Amino acid sequence: MQNIVPLKCPKCNNTSLFYKYGKTKDGYQKYLCRKCHHQFAPDKPSSKKTPKYPRCPVCGKASFLHHDYEYYSNYRCCDKKCNHSFFVPKPTAIPSTSMSKLVGKTNFKRMRYPLHIILSALSMFFLGKNSFRNISLILKTTFNVEVSHTTISNWCRKFAPLFHNISLELIPMLNFNSDEWHVDETVVKIAGEKYYIWFVIDSETRFILGFHLTPYRDSRQAFALLNSVRNLGTPSAIVSDRYSAYKVPVKSLFGYSVKHIRVESFKNDISNNLIESFHHQFKAWYKAKQGFASFESANNLISMFVFFYNFVRPHSSLNGWTPAQVAGLNLTPKEKKKYLLVA
What we know:
Elements: E1 18-23, E2 29-33, E3 39-40, E4 63-68, E5 72-77, E6 85-89, H1 115-127, H2 132-143, H3 149-158, H4 160-170, E7 180-190, E8 193-202, E9 208-214, H5 219-229, E10 237-240, H6 247-254, E11 259-262, H7 273-288, H8 295-312, H9 323-326, H10 333-338
Parallel strand pairs: 7-10, 10-11
Antiparallel strand pairs: 1-2, 2-3, 4-5, 5-6, 7-8, 8-9
Helix pairs in contact: 1-2, 2-3, 4-8, 5-6
Pfam family, one: DDE_Tnp_IS240
Organism: Thermoanaerobacter pseudethanolicus (strain ATCC 33223 / 39E)
Function: Involved in the transposition of the insertion sequence.
């Protein structure tokens, strides 16, 4: 069966007046436009090569590799009048965050105690300042259920992957295209050693977009953190302190359309007080637990704390709503039961 190729002159858009005009050296049929006399072979594959380097985002002209680094490449425009320098990340080289390395259970199967007892214990631990022994005592006096404080401690760690998966299902329903995202890091102690916990928070919803627990404080960790949240939304600006580790990650991952505001405490009109305030709440919860015993335990507990902060705990500054509700989460009673939410 003959293959009928729709013809259209690429020069004048003529669709009806053509002559067959021989064949190319590769055997493709050529045509001659009777209007503009342009010769073309519609079946011939395009000979245009994909440029080796990206085009300049300012003038659209070719660029060259200026410097090549581990997590990004620095390109410069070939036009000397433009001479624009820009960064392109290497997604496969950027490390993953600690919140993607949770270890534990992803369901409530084969649990000795009822679900409402487990959820009550988790809520008392992550929403209040109760110790495991106090929670055990409250469950005994309230529900007449004897639960060891060691069992409660295991619950608070082992269900982190389950609640993280719930968070991943709910986040696509939310909107984080806001004015500012705030990013900062603070110190925690794990078995007596100093570690850094990095957070990103949305200014309008107070939603914790991501976290990263690491023993190091450098640009590599900032790359990992910002790369993990870059697809959640598009802020107008990213606010950080004067620490230089944020400069290149923000430019390379978010481009020049997102402004990077580097503030200095008590001296700028725009401040990073929003995330500093969150650090006070986090430290109040963290210090009541008297530190963490291991990295795995700390990573799981922080993940659970972030889930309860985002989806369960009502905030007085948000008129009694949770950050997830402010971001657009509106679930039916049946869906709330499915996702283990009561807020």
